[in-house]
Amino acid sequence: RLQVGILAKEDLVDKKAAKPKRGERVQEVDVVALPYAEAMGSWRRHSPYYTESHHRFRAAVREFMDTEIKPNCKAWDDSGELPSRDIDKKMGEAGIFACLVANEGIGDLLRAHGIELPGGVRPEEFDAFHGLIFSEECRRGVDG
Predict the structure, then answer these.
(1) Which among 47, 67, 68, 87 has most CB atoms closer than 10 A?
(2) CA dihedral 118, 136, 90, 93 (to 10 degrees)
(3) Quick one: which of 111, 113, 144, 117 has its CA closest to 131?
């Protein structure tokens, strides 16, 4: 049965494995190495479809979400507040809103208004994989 929660290190230890002897250290578990502990995009680092622009894009969106959204999202959710106009402005300046409309042919419109995509990605480079990365990082950035 599926449950929402956080695994304790005790839950990660194989119950059938031999118990460590007295004084023997138990191996520490790296949470990132656990399946499904990170967005699936993190597992695609060596994909033939991902270029340098995808990695720059992921880093830029992740940094924005980690610094501007993640620290506040729980409080916004608990209080029922919407993010402030200041956050909206920062999202616009970071190119986060532009990612929602980025597709073929939108480059001229973005350039005409001086809008850049995160990570310095050119509108012509933005593809379905950038959209996938954007979705993964936005989901990761709202603290579950």
Answers:
(1) 68
(2) 20
(3) 117
